[in-house]
Design goal:
Number of helices: 5
Radius of gyration: 25 Å
Mean pLDDT: 81
Helix content: 10-25%
Oligomer: single chain
Low-confidence stretches: 14-72
Shape: globular
Structural class: mainly beta
């Protein structure tokens, strides 16, 4: 039992260490940032030179929200951050709300909450940090928004981007949070700031008015309540909510091996009129009621005729119970079902027997041990995981399996693999 627990902890440590930002999200952020210079030369002075991107992986589910969005007027001075996005189009239509609330941080920097955008799916804050003495040392920790609170509101930060000017005296930023309660008329931003004298973090707050007088109706809000069976459990799709800023699908996961494959929700597509809608991000949380999830997609067209959710890929499991000889290394891969496993090296060190392997990025081994003539030794831990390019140019995940024994192994035993499996299961969503 102890070995199993230790192995699960070791596997989880390795999995977490390998997590990277979703390619789709990274591409979306880079698209916005990379397109900034062209716009800068045409419309505003070339004052921005450095872009910083902050991605907060914290995603906590929002509370119930009436199907309304609240907007006011156009926000100015954030063209660089909005360039080429859906939010830019909404802002140009005057669908923002000016705030212009100021406060002073502990190091003398002025924080201005310039404006907001909000709907049933998210709350976005636009802010400026100004310090004539310079913001050279302004790192992510120097000003870190954490949540928005208010009447029936406790909305956590989700993601953000920011730009600093050439003089390093001004930062303009955009921060998104979970949606706020539509009955809130006063909101408080909670943020962390780093103390100059000792580097410790201190929490600050600033309260500002929130005006729900101008409302825009949510495009779609309806139940789905459909289930999809996968190898290790069930996915339940609960609802879809489409607003002017994004589309969110929510549901529940009863899947034992969901955490064994990274970015497991990114294989779920929203298809509208035959075309996939761009995925913006996803999150999941576990509570006493089980594990829930949300997948965030781009906005939907005003007129649509069909809508589908497609579970194209999702974490799966294949049982193997296979024994592979370690007596000699081959230049050919071992086959784990349809997946390849390359044995790179087998050696004995002071720590034990080390076996270096390489596989596709989505493959995680289950129930691994080595066998000698007299005994079987389970995997102790996995070390030195990295991405490597193979002779044929293919990128693979390389890592070293460590076994707590000095006995020469004769074979490698693998009970099964977790991997990203193709399901291609379709759920039709009625268009009302």
């Amino acid at each position: 039992m102890n070995n199993n627990v230790e192995q699960q902890l070791a596997d989880e440590k390795t999995r977490i260490a390998s997590i990277t930002a979703p390619e789709e999200l990274e591409m979306r952020l880079r698209k916005a940032l990379n397109s900034a210079p062209a716009k800068r030369t045409k419309r505003i002075a070339p004052i921005w030179k450095v872009a910083a991107v902050v991605l907060l992986v914290t995603v906590i589910s929002g509370q119930n929200y009436n199907a309304f969005a609240y907007f006011g007027k156009q926000l100015f001075g954030f063209d660089e951050l909005l360039n080429g996005t859906t939010l830019q189009q909404l802002n140009e239509k005057g669908l923002g709300q000016n705030i212009n609330k100021k406060t002073t941080l502990l190091d003398g920097t002025t924080l201005t909450i310039n404006g907001i955008m909000a709907d049933a799916n998210q709350f976005i804050m636009y802010y400026t940090l100004t310090n004539p003495n310079g913001l050279e040392d302004m790192s992510v920790d120097a000003f870190r928004p954490s949540k928005i609170s208010g009447f029936l509101t406790d909305s956590n930060a989700v993601s953000g981007t920011s730009l600093i000017n050439e003089e390093h005296t001004e930062i303009k930023g955009q921060m998104s949070f979970d949606s706020v309660n539509p009955f809130s008329k006063k909101l408080t931003l909670h943020f962390w700031q780093q103390l100059v004298e000792n580097g410790q973090m201190s929490e600050g707050t600033v309260t500002f008015p929130y005006n729900p007088n101008e409302a825009m109706e949510t495009q779609i809000k309806q139940s789905i309540n459909k289930k999809v069976k996968v190898d290790k459990g069930m996915i339940t799709f609960k609802s879809i909510t489409a607003t002017p800023m994004m589309t969110v699908v929510k549901g529940k996961l009863d899947v034992d091996n969901f955490d064994r494959v990274k970015l497991g929700l990114y294989g779920i597509q929203l298809i509208v009129d035959g075309t996939p809608v761009e995925i913006l991000g996803s999150g999941n949380q576990t509570s006493l009621g089980g594990r829930t999830f949300d997948i965030r997609f781009d906005t939907l067209p005003k007129e649509l005729h069909s809508m589908q959710l497609v579970v194209k890929e999702f974490p799966g499991y294949q049982k193997l119970d296979e024994k592979y000889s370690l007596t000699s290394l081959s230049d050919k891969p071992l086959m784990l079902g349809d997946k390849e496993l390359w044995l790179k090296d087998v050696s004995k060190t002071s720590q034990g027997i080390e076996i270096t392997i390489a596989s596709d990025d989505d493959v995680m081994l289950d129930g691994v041990s080595i066998e000698t003539n007299n005994e079987s030794t389970p995997l102790k831990t996995t070390i030195n995981q990295k991405e490597t390019k193979q002779v044929d140019g293919k990128l693979m995940k390389e890592r070293t399996l460590l076994f707590d024994t000095q006995a020469e192994p004769g074979s490698l035993l693998i009970e099964g693999i977790h991997y990203l499996k193709a399901y291609n299961k379709v759920i039709e969503i009625p268009v009302k």
